[in-house]
Write a sequence for this structure.
C-alpha cells in the first residue's frame, strides 16, 4: 500500500475559521488519506500568533511568525491556508504564489471574478496548486446525494432546487469597520453565506464535478435573476434565481436577520423530493429521499470534528500527484460561481470599492 502523503501547512491569519481548520487537521482519524503537519502560523503580530497556538494547538510547537511575509518565505511550508477576510484573499494569494507556495484559499475566493482570474493566472504561470476552500463540496454526504440524484435518478429528472442559509448576523449593531458591515471587506450575506445557498442549488441541479463518470467541466452558466435588500449599501438579504435553458430552476436565498430551519435545502424531481438537513447549509448531516408513492428513506452521515479535513485530504492527494487544481472544485467552477455572484450584485445593488462600472 502506498504511503500516505505528508503536507506541511502554513496557516495565514488567526481568526475563527483558521482555528476550526487547524483543530480538524489535528484530529486522529482512522480514515485519513494524508498526514497533515501544522508547520507554521503567520499572524499580524507575534503575540497573537503565540496566543493562537496556545489556545488551539496545545502540545504542538509550530513556528510562529509575526508577519505574513515571513510565513510565505518559510522553506519548510508546502502550502498556505488563507483564512483572512474576503477582501484580502487576492493579495494574500498573489503573495503566496510569488513565493512558489501552493494555496488553499477560503471562500469566497475573491471579491470579484476579475480578481479571481488574476489570481488563477498567476498560479498557472508559477505552476503551483491552488483551490478555493469550499469545504462543503468535499463532504461524503454531497457525493452520496449527487449519486442518488444524478446517477441513480432516485427522484427522476431533477427540475428545481431550493436552498436557504440565514442567521441573525446583527449587522445593524456592528461598527463600520466590521467585516460584516464594511463593503471594502466584502461585507454582506452574499459572499459570506449566500455562496453556500448558491452552491447547494448547483449541487442539486447539476451532475457532479470530479473524476469519471462525473463531468469534467462545469455546465454553462445559467441565466441569473437576483434581488437584494440593502442596509447602508450592505446586502442583508439576497435571492438568486438560476434559470437553465432546459427549464431547470434553482432558488438560493440568504438573510442576515432570520435563521434557516434544519431542512435547509429541497430538491424536486419528476418522481419525488430530497430534503437536506443540518445545523446549517455549510455543515449538512443527512438527507431524506421522498418518493411520490409515499416511500421515504433517510441517509445520515457522521462528521467527527467540523469536516475541514476532507478538503485538506483532497488537496494533499492532488499535490502529491502533481496536479495543479482539484477535480471537485476546479478553477473554472470557482470563476463561474464568482461570475454569478458578480451578476447578483449588479442586479441587487451591493457594490464593493473594487467594482468597475
Amino acid at each position: 500500500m502506498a504511503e500516505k502523503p505528508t503536507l506541511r501547512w502554513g496557516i495565514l491569519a488567526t481568526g475563527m475559521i483558521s482555528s476550526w481548520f487547524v483543530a480538524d487537521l489535528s484530529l486522529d482519524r482512522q480514515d485519513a488519506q494524508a498526514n497533515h503537519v501544522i508547520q507554521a502560523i503567520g499572524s499580524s503580530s507575534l503575540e497573537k500568533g503565540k496566543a493562537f497556538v496556545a489556545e488551539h494547538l496545545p502540545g504542538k510547537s509550530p513556528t510562529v511568525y509575526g508577519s505574513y511575509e515571513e510565513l510565505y518565505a518559510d522553506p519548510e511550508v508546502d502550502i498556505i491556508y488563507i483564512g483572512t477576510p474576503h477582501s484580502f484573499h487576492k493579495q494574500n494569494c498573489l503573495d503566496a504564489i510569488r513565493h512558489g507556495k501552493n494555496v488553499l484559499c477560503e471562500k469566497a475566493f475573491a471579491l470579484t471574478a476579475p480578481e479571481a482570474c488574476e489570481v488563477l493566472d498567476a498560479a498557472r504561470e508559477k505552476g503551483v496548486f491552488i483551490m478555493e476552500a469550499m469545504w462543503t463540496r468535499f463532504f461524503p454526504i454531497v457525493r452520496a446525494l449527487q449519486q442518488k440524484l444524478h446517477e441513480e435518478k432516485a427522484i427522476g429528472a431533477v427540475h428545481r432546487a431550493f436552498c436557504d442559509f440565514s442567521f441573525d448576523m446583527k449587522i445593524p449593531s456592528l461598527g463600520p469597520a466590521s467585516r460584516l458591515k464594511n463593503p471594502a471587506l466584502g461585507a454582506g450575506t452574499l459572499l459570506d453565506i449566500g455562496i453556500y445557498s448558491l452552491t447547494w442549488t448547483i449541487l442539486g441541479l447539476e451532475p457532479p464535478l470530479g473524476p469519471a463518470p462525473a463531468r469534467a467541466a462545469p455546465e454553462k452558466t445559467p441565466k441569473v435573476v437576483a434581488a437584494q435588500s440593502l442596509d447602508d449599501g450592505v446586502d442583508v438579504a439576497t435571492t438568486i434565481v438560476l434559470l437553465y435553458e432546459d427549464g431547470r430552476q434553482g432558488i438560493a436565498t440568504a438573510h442576515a436577520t432570520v435563521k434557516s430551519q434544519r431542512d435547509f435545502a429541497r430538491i424536486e424531481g419528476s418522481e419525488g423530493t430530497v430534503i437536506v438537513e443540518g445545523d446549517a447549509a455549510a455543515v449538512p448531516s443527512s438527507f431524506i429521499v421522498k418518493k411520490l408513492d409515499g416511500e421515504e428513506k433517510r441517509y445520515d452521515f457522521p462528521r467527527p470534528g467540523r469536516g475541514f479535513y476532507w478538503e485538506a485530504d483532497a488537496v494533499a492527494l492532488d499535490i502529491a500527484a502533481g496536479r495543479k487544481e482539484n477535480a471537485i472544485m476546479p478553477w473554472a467552477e470557482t470563476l463561474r460561481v464568482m461570475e454569478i455572484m458578480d451578476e447578483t450584485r449588479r442586479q441587487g445593488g451591493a457594490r464593493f470599492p473594487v467594482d468597475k462600472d
